[in-house]
């Protein structure tokens, strides 16, 4: 009986450890069930030593958790799995540069802005978002602001491209 208690306990600990490499919860749940089953078998096999069995299993679980939290991430094996490079602007990484020359420009709407669509500036199509009403294609808009790849535009007051002639 002691053999099955140990097999279930260490097998459960191994399954929980391997959950790190194949995440999804299945291995971790099976490992937890194995460890609980090991505790139940241990208490059934040695009822007079139930406190020692549960204490030893709890201590082992805490040591396994400490191993996985403190030592394993700094191990040479884990360092190969963890991204350590900083992707910040100081090292030259940017998500998207703001084209601030667009601010204040009058541009034509290529596809309807409902509220997102496409505008054209110097022959280049740019995704934009209308600030307010929907704007049909063919109208002219003014660029209000640019933040990265987000271009906010508003309808030009004199733009009547979507009005129906009477």
Question: Explain this structure to me?
Answer:
This protein has helices at residues 2-18, 26-45, 50-71, 76-79, and strands at residues 106-111, 116-121, 124-130, 140-147, 150-155. Strand 2 and strand 3 (124-130) form a beta hairpin. The chain is of the alpha+beta class and 166 residues long. Strands 1-2-3-5-4 form a five-stranded mixed barrel. Mean pLDDT is 85; it is low at 162-166. It has two domains: 2-79; 100-155, Nucleic acid-binding proteins (OB fold (Dihydrolipoamide Acetyltransferase, E2P), Beta Barrel). The longest helix is centred in the middle third of the chain and has 22 residues, at 50-71. It starts with a helix and ends in an 11-residue tail after the last strand.
